Amino acid sequence: MSDFNKVRVTRADLEDVIREKAAGVSGVDLEAVVSELVARLPDLVDEHTATSALRADTVHAWIEQQIDAECTSAEFDAVLKANTP
């Protein structure tokens, strides 16, 4: 099978999305938040088959959709709060 239809979602992509979602919250332990989300969504950081929603140019939006589907805004805020000194 060719890699043409594959999209790699990296931990760095996830960090970028978390950084954007946590904008305005100072002192967030980004690595801890990323680790918690990887535990909740173990298949997120991986190689995926491209779809209309997941393409090389939509990785960040797709990650955000996956996070939003996994946890409510309140749950995400709780994860941030738990990982902010």
CA-atom Rg in angstroms: 13 Å
Tell me about the largest β-sheet.
Answer: 2 strands, antiparallel
Give the low-pLDDT segments. none
Strand order in the largest sheet: 1-2
- N-to-C CA distance: 46 Å
Tally of helical segments: 4
**Overall number of strands:** 2
What pattern of helices and strands is seen along the backbone?
EHHEHH
- The chain-level mean pLDDT equals 94
Kindly estimate the percentage of residues that lie in beta strands according to DSSP: 5-15%
Please give the domain count. Answer: 1
Protein architecture, described:
- The protein is built from four helices and two strands, in the order βααβαα.
- It has helices at residues 11-21, 30-40, 59-70, 73-82, and strands at residues 6-9, 46-49.
- α1 (11-21) packs across α2 (30-40) and α1 packs across α3.
- The longest helix is centred in the C-terminal third of the chain and has 12 residues, at 59-70.
- It is elongated.
Supply database-style keywords.
elongated; 2 strands; about 10% strand; mainly alpha; about 80 residues
Question: What is shown here, in short?
Answer:
With 85 residues, the protein is mainly α. The chain contains four helices and two strands; from the N terminus they run E-H-H-E-H-H. Strands 1-2 form a two-stranded antiparallel sheet.
How are the elements arranged and paired?
Layout: E1 6-9, H1 11-21, H2 30-40, E2 46-49, H3 59-70, H4 73-82
Antiparallel strand pairs: 1-2
